[in-house]
Amino acid sequence: MYIINSSFSNSPSYIGDGGFSGHGGAIFFNTNSKSNISNSNFTNNIASEGGGIFINNGDDLTINDSIFSDNFANVNGGAVFLNPN
């Protein structure tokens, strides 16, 4: 997958009672594939883990010339979280 010249903003990941309990406020990678993000912005995204991006199971992700600002995770990885499982 290629993501180029994109913006992700104000994307909360909700589950259950409306709390921030999900993974990957903007993007959740769970496909065991190779992906590339370039010239993109991630702003004000919220999740429990991976406020901007959550990467599961060792996906191969390359990020170039991209900006992460004001993303929030209440557990791990305000901008990006890699789950090694």
From TrEMBL:
Q: InterPro entries attached here?
A: Pectin_lyase_fold/virulence, POMP_repeat
Assign the protein's first listed, main location to one coarse class.
Answer: other
Which Pfam family is one of those matched by this entry? Chlam_PMP
Keyword annotations for this protein, in alphabetical order, are:
Cell outer membrane, Membrane, Secreted, Signal
Look up keyword Cell cycle and say if it applies.
no
Question: What transmembrane ranges does the database entry give?
Answer: none
Q: Kindly list the places in or outside the cell where this protein is found, as annotated in its UniProt entry.
A: Cell envelope; Cell outer membrane; Secreted
Cross-referenced SUPFAM superfamilies: Pectin lyase-like (SSF51126)
Q: Name one GO cellular component term.
A: extracellular region
Q: What is this protein called?
A: Right handed beta helix domain-containing protein
